[in-house]
Design brief:
152 residues
Length: 152
């Protein structure tokens, strides 16, 4: 029997992560019942769903056969965490609009096929959508532009 080793390992990591969070939620938070859900109900349920998805990935690895693994691409490996880090570092000082703008532009740069014009249009649309949903729709206390940009 042949199997795809990379999918097997990836599915195992996903399943183990889901199981860890589900068991942690069951052990540390009151779950309640379906009619009176406690704070641990939703994290446990999502953990079990993620575990099931990981097991399905592993099952798919059994029948897919051994394939040549894709080459490791460093560009997304570096730029996606950099996009998340840029959001974390700019949300308080620069505000929601610049933080969302940076995260979209930097994460789109991880794909070599993306173009600057498309990235800028997507960033502007995401800024407007995030402002509409989080600031105006949900009334979250997020400044659109932070104190770093007040002098401009």
């Amino acid at each position: 029997m042949t199997f795809n080793r990379h999918d097997m390992v990836s599915g195992g990591i996903v399943a183990a992560t889901g199981l860890f969070f589900a068991l942690t939620a069951l052990r540390t938070l009151p779950v309640g019942t379906m009619l009176r859900m406690g704070p641990g109900y939703f994290p446990a349920a999502i953990g079990f769903v993620v575990t099931g998805l990981g097991l399905m990935i592993m099952a798919g690895a059994l029948k897919s056969g051994q394939e040549k693994p894709a080459p490791l691409r460093l560009r997304p490996l570096i730029l996606i965490p950099a996009a998340i880090l840029s959001f974390l570092l700019t949300i308080r000082g620069a505000g929601l609009i610049p933080a969302v703008f940076f995260v979209v532009v930097v994460s789109r740069a991880a794909d070599p096929a993306s173009r600057l014009a498309g990235s800028l249009m997507l960033a502007i649309a995401m800024c407007a959508l995030c402002a509409a949903i989080f600031v105006y729709g949900l009334n979250l206390p997020l400044p659109l532009f932070g104190q770093w940009l007040r002098g401009f």
